[in-house]
Design brief:
- The chain is an alpha/beta fold.
- The chain folds into two domains: 208 residues, 3-Layer(aba) Sandwich (Aspartate Aminotransferase, domain 2); 115 residues, Aspartate Aminotransferase, domain 1.
- Helices cover 42% and strands 14% of the residues.
- The protein contains twelve helices and nine strands.
- A seven-stranded mixed beta sheet has the order 1-7-6-5-4-2-3, with helices on both faces.
- The structure holds pyridoxal-5'-phosphate.
């Protein structure tokens, strides 16, 4: 396919969109391919928010949409997750009668936690008139829970985003899709302009979809390594937010920045930090070998931290505010 990259190859994309649409029980015009899901996310924000129509998202949540909202001049409304780390859809509606777009990420980046389908339905049924819901399902392949695509089938006002960058391991090849009613997709396309897909990405995504074992196999590998990690953390008394995805938030029990730096000195890169959870760092679930390296480095850093804090580290206020939340450890 790389050798054929000298030409536009739009029938390959048409075939991919039709194929993808069939796989989720929709007609081809409900699916639009993009080079990754960042483009349709950014352009949805530009299409549906403005100085008069706010952008509503979770805190902590995936930040990209907020950057786009700064470009559209929209008010950015950040609503804390519930105690079970779901999107607080009732609070989101209450916080933004002027909403243009509600962004739901499930599993959520960075917590890896799910927002129940009923809550997404509630949001769609009760959102302010003229607003839309964008459900980012970048990490949905890691879980076996219902997608919001059935709500697109019911022709509701939402766009579902999917990507081949995560479980499919194609981040550099760039393939994603937006799923929605044709009139909503047209609003994104009009802003983005003509959007030719990389032929290599479309070919790789088509081949990946044809392999029925790929999702269950990779989901299983990730869940197994993540489960081993959580077991180890439990045994050693470290607390974390139970995640369904290929990353999780781990409690550093001190400002996370120092821990991230100390881990980097041991060649283990972790992070980043979300301001609402300043004593947490997001850890990516890697291979078994990588997680062994992580564990060794983490123990060293934590032991160093404990001996350096004789008399106890003063906990920050946000950490105390989280005391009521259920942790496994
Ligand atoms: N959505 C979420 C929640 C993400 O975490 C990411 C990447 O980190 C993206 C979308 C964008 O990914 P891509 O543009 O590679 O599809």
């Amino acid at each position: 396919m790389a050798a054929q990259g000298g030409r536009y190859f739009s029938n390959l994309t048409d075939h991919f969109e039709k194929n993808f649409a069939e796989s989720v029980g929709l007609k081809a015009e409900f699916v639009s391919a993009f080079p990754g899901s960042s483009g349709p996310l950014h352009h949805s924000v530009l299409a549906f928010t403005s100085a008069k129509r706010s952008y509503v998202t979770a805190d902590p949540g995936y930040e990209a949409g907020m950057f786009a909202a700064s470009a559209s001049g929209a008010r950015i409304v950040k609503v804390p997750l519930t105690k079970t780390y779901a999107h607080d859809v009732k609070a989101m509606i209450a916080a933004a009668p002027d909403a243009g777009m509600f962004y739901i990420c499930s599993p959520n980046n960075p917590t890896g936690t799910l927002t129940p389908h009923v809550d997404i339905e509630y949001l769609i049924e009760n959102k302010p008139k003229g607003s839309i819901v964008v459900v980012d399902e970048a990490y949905t392949h890691f879980v076996d829970t219902p997608s919001a695509v059935d709500l697109v089938k019911a022709e509701k006002d939402l766009i579902v985003l999917r990507t081949f960058s995560k479980l499919y391991g194609m981040a550099g090849l760039r393939c994603g899709v937006a799923i929605g009613k044709p009139d909503l997709l047209a609003k994104i396309q009009n802003i983005m302009g003509w959007n030719a897909m990389p032929t290599t990405a479309v070919a790789a995504a088509t081949a990946s979809m044809a392999d029925a074992r790929l999702i269950p196999e990779r989901r299983h590998i990730n869940a197994e390594i993540r489960g081993e990690m959580f077991q180890w953390l439990d045994q050693h008394g470290y607390s974390y937010i139970p995640s369904e995805a290929n990353f999780f938030m781990l409690n550093t029990k001190q400002p996370a920045k120092g821990v991230i730096d100390a881990m980097a000195k041991r060649s283990v890169r972790i992070g980043r930090i979300w301001p609402i959870l300043p004593t947490y760092s997001r850890i990516t679930v890697g291979t078994r070998e990588e997680m062994t390296m992580f564990r060794d480095a983490w123990q060293e850093v934590m032991k160093g931290a404990v001996s350096a804090q004789v008399g106890g580290l003063a906990e920050t206020k946000p950490w105390r505010a989280l005391d009521g939340i259920r942790f496994r450890a």
